[in-house]
């Protein structure tokens, strides 16, 4: 299996995604919600980054903005060196198709396509023929994710966890430069979760893919080599790899500080 295609490095460092003072407001006037508040961060190529934080802290907004699915209110986002705000919708779509794989909280599978067709959809959309290595990688993913005996089933015939695994296979299949995964293990049992997390770690370490994963789960985040913490739209933590216990303590610390601040 060959690594993800090499892409030019950005800004002198090998960064794939960077946020510069990014703010995102929903609505305006006194009722506006500041979902991201002056977030500045550089995500290096080939890293596995977990994004954590309480409900409503801005994690999904972070992912949507990173992918150019949502516009920022202030600041800028660069994906593979390209400032997203400077691209029109078509150029953003092309950039996403060539560089980004998604695992959404809602799996966004195509109900009329079977498992294999769903997994191969990114190739179809990009007009890309599968190489022998692509075929081998897709079969490997279907096997590791426990989907080999489900390839002709449609999403409606699968459990929630199986659908989630199809979404993960689809995101990883074309070996995109960056995979944005929002709670990718949310519907999975312990064993399937470990397999998915191991796969994401392999994608980063062995194939140089950049993984950004939102999770509430300290065990899931402990597979990452970096942990970002958001609270009220602000980046309040940026840590190297930690154990599940350390992550749990960190999150409890932030909760206590917030409650103290709110009291
Ligand atoms: N389309 C929208 N319109 C208005 N407010 C929004 C919209 N999307 C998100 N928000 C608000 O922005 C803030 C951040 O939301 P976001 O979904 O990014 O949080 P999150 O950390 O992903 O939450 P969760 O863990 O519950 O999924 C929240 O206060 C939310 O209510």
Automatic annotation (TrEMBL):
A GO CC term assigned to this protein in UniProt: plasma membrane
InterPro entries, per database record: AAA+_ATPase, ABC_transporter-like_ATP-bd, ABC_transporter-like_CS, ABC_transpr_LolD-like, MacB-like_ATP-bd, P-loop_NTPase
Domain ABC transporter residues, every copy: 17-255
Gene3D superfamilies, sorted: P-loop containing nucleotide triphosphate hydrolases
CDD domains xref list: ABC_MJ0796_LolCDE_FtsE
Keyword Transport attributed: yes
Listed name of the protein: ABC transporter ATP-binding protein
Annotated source species: Nocardioides anomalus
């Amino acid at each position: 299996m060959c690594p993800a295609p090499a892409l030019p490095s950005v800004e002198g460092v090998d960064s794939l995604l960077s946020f510069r003072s990014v703010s995102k407001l929903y609505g305006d006037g006194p009722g506006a919600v500041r979902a991201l508040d002056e977030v500045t961060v550089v995500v290096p190529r080939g890293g596995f980054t977990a994004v954590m934080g309480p409900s409503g802290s801005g994690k999904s907004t972070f992912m949507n903005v990173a992918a150019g699915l949502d516009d920022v209110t202030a600041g800028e986002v660069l994906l593979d060196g390209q400032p997203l705000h400077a691209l029109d919708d078509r150029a953003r779509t092309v950039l996403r198709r060539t560089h980004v794989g998604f695992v959404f909280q809602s799996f966004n599978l195509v109900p009329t396509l079977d498992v294999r067709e769903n997994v191969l959809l990114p190739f179809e959309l990009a007009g890309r023929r599968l190489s022998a290595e692509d075929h081998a990688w897709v079969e490997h993913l279907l096997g590791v994710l426990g989907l080999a005996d489900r390839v002709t089933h449609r999403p409606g015939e699968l459990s929630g966890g199986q659908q989630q695994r199809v979404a993960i296979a689809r995101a990883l299949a074309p070996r995109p430069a960056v995979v944005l995964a929002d709670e990718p293990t949310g519907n999975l049992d312990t064993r399937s979760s470990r397999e998915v997390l191991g796969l994401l770690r392999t994608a980063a370490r062995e194939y140089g893919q950049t993984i950004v994963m939102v999770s509430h789960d300290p065990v899931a985040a402990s597979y990452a080599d970096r942990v970002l913490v958001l609270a009220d739209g602000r980046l309040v933590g940026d840590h190297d790899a930690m154990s599940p216990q350390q992550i749990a303590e960190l999150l409890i610390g932030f909760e206590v500080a917030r409650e103290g601040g709110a009291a």
